[in-house]
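Chapter summary example.
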Amino acid sequence: MNNHNLNPLDLPEVRDVVGKHLDRSDLARCLCVCRSWHASFVPLVWSTASILPEPTHLNPSLEAFIRHCHHLKELSYTVDAPREYRSTPCPKLSDLQVSVTQPPANPPPNDTVVIDIPQHEQLRILRIRDANMGPSRRIIWKPAHHLHNLSELSLSDLEIEPQDTTTFWDLCTQLEVLQTANVSVELPVQSITFDRLKCLGLGLSLKPRNARERQLDFIIQCPNLTLLDWIYLDRELARGYTGRFKPGTCVWPNLREFSLYGYYFTDEQLALTIGAMRDLKTLEIIGSEVGFSFLAALRPHFPSLRSLNMIDCHDITRTIVPEVLTSCSELETLGVGDVLSQDIIDSPPWICESSLKVLTVAFQFPYDNTDHHQRQVLQRISRLTNLKKVTLCPVYDPDQCFLDIRLEKGLELLTTWKQLEKLSFYAGFHHLSARDVEWMIDNWKNLKEVDGYFNQGNSDELTAMFQSAGIKCRTP
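The structure predicted for these 476 residues follows.
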């Protein structure tokens, strides 16, 4: 056999590799080359599909959909899409997204959408979300036992009816990932353990049955979590919260990433929660009370901590930020508000000077000694030589002012920020001049984006200067 004239694309294996790098329009063209190419590229063309309620001419024909549904691996549709598409079993489907869109122009009273997922033998990922930007619709999901291969579930803005609660939590015992956002469901009985669950995003609707201590009980029933995002925005303090933990007990030994959007958590409650974890790498606390008890519980995590965000927290003790900067050698991301300039100036050498890459901060300066403190703070942060992203946040104290990075205030000290890629101004209105912008362009060669309030009255000219240098510029 003479192979000298063999084209590599004559081999199905090569076409399979090439097809993975082509977009849908190129794949469609490949179907028309010849029969062998058609056979190779049909599975790639039909590996994904999206079904819309309208305009229906954008959907594949029902006949073609049924003929090729055995190729489908990823499918998305809306609840208002034709039922014939939604009810067709797809034996290889592994990823399904169901969206709830805006209701009809004249929706019936108490408009309710009931979502029932048909049987797909290989379904592993299921996402149900509300994409409706208009009047709200009541969304009910009917969980089913036939979803026995499901490992990842994401739900938003829907409810599980009481009669389906047991089925839902039985289904959750097989999951590795569970994401919920404004989901109404009765919490499980405490006898169930969710050993397989690794990633949990918990955002349940605020009803008396889902009070904070009950949500905490559920989280404790997930002992092998590696990531936890908990959203709890209720003002009511939970009674009995402190009794959920025994001092020195590690409840989540594998947890490495913890985010708490939990307004009105107390310093003691935060300390108990953080104290039940080991070797955190990422910690984000939004809107709660952060004090000495929290700091004591945080210290054991200093050696492993890489990201710490405490933006919008209140009652932050002055020792937290300097101690973090001087103790966390692996820290790459830091977000914190209301940092007094004197605390930064007086702090010992920072152990994270070479590791810190992202800084979000609100520095506070006394009006009676601003210029002197400005230069001292700029001198300290100039040692953060690997910063890639800096965000300057607002200062709300009327007796304090914010960091002013202009040449007349000491901007030239920041020539060390050679790696800076993005700079955001959210600390009130700055007053950058053309000379300041020119300096930034000349000295920060990696700068790609600038946004926020960087000049109150001359933003158009400065925006044009940034853009002419190839730097994206966005102003509110």
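To summarize the output: The longest strand covers residues 358-366.
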